[in-house]
Specification:
mainly alpha, two-stranded antiparallel ribbon
Amino acid sequence: MTDESRIIIPKTEVDEVPEEELQYDATEADEEKFFLMYHLNWPPSELDALTDDRRKWILARFVGQKQMERDAMQQMRIREQIGPNLKMPS
């Protein structure tokens, strides 16, 4: 296991348990499934039912959608800075 793939659970002020290192070596598919669980609130059972190609498409689509939303927000901020009387090319 490389240092980059190690996950360490730090102890909190409430817990008096020493730091514990996880022994599981996560795969790329695990990381993709975690991303979907975290951002889309999907249960693991639904993610396990997806084919690899469909999971990868959903990830790419999600990231692309977020980028389009960021671009739209940035354009809106620019339009607000320019002012209501000036037109910005579409």
